[in-house]
């Protein structure tokens, strides 16, 4: 990792839930976090962390808008000359527990737009800034519900299919980078069932617990590349 200067991280969907916890944990390690959210002016929790002296800055980012991602990439390059960490955390779950036959094409499209195409935009436009460093980490936030071995019931099709696609993109990006950029590692993380707006109040994990493996992958010193992890251990695809 970039040890000669301050590390820079971009975290998407950072204004609440797991993204907020990831941003705080990275900042507590001295990493400057550009916390992406649609409305930085309304990101009160991020502002509170910044007021505590943590190196966190709320930045405008809508991952489903390529122009928004491009604007952030340009700003990062101009201000910092590169990037060290990208956390593709932004996501939606619009069809929780809905059956296969109830799923609408519009719901699937909207889910893919954020969960897959949003991660594509961010990776295509921000990973080149990690290439400028030569060393870095990319973490895609997935779910164990997208593991083929966990698909024992046919519900939540849009969300789970989108995360399965994100898992595939994780492997493909890792493979594409590993020859010319062997120190840029790309992995996916399962945070578990977490108490968030998406996970609901009955979930057993806190956001800090959900963020742990994501932050671990973002700051890895021991080589892991192209894998899916839960609780800091490999998880089956």
From TrEMBL:
InterPro entries this protein is in?
CBR1-like, NAD(P)-bd_dom_sf, SDR_fam
Coiled-coil annotated residue ranges, if any: none
Keyword line = NADP, Oxidoreductase
Keyword NADP recorded: yes
Provide an example Pfam family for this protein: adh_short
**Annotated GO MF terms:** oxidoreductase activity, acting on the CH-OH group of donors, NAD or NADP as acceptor
Task: Name the protein family.
Answer: Belongs to the short-chain dehydrogenases/reductases (SDR) family.
This protein's name: NAD(P)-dependent dehydrogenase (Short-subunit alcohol dehydrogenase family)
